[in-house]
Specification:
Length: 87
């Protein structure tokens, strides 16, 4: 993939676009007009690593688990009592 570097006329920041998008681009920082500087090489890490951070509200699940544990304890107590009654 070829890339072209542009310098922003407004803020001076260098913007790099893929060469097939050579026209009609504006500065990604300020939206200013871009002046092409020339071809450039973009360094890519050999390992393309995507990191996703997912946070989930587990409040409802925690409540449900507590209820299940409570039910489980009561069932165990009931089974023990039935064993005592039958024994
Ligand atoms: Zn700019």
């Amino acid at each position: 993939m070829k890339h072209i570097a542009f310098k922003c006329c407004e803020c001076g920041v260098i913007n790099v676009y893929e060469s097939y998008r050579g026209d009609g681009n504006s500065c990604m920082r300020c939206g200013g007009t871009l002046n092409p500087i020339g071809d450039c090489v973009v360094h890519c890490n050999s390992k393309n690593v995507l990191v996703y951070k997912i946070s989930i509200d587990t409040t409802d699940i925690d409540r449900a688990l507590k209820k299940i544990n409570c039910l489980n304890d009561r069932m165990n107590e009931a089974v023990i009592r039935m064993g005592i009654l039958n024994g």
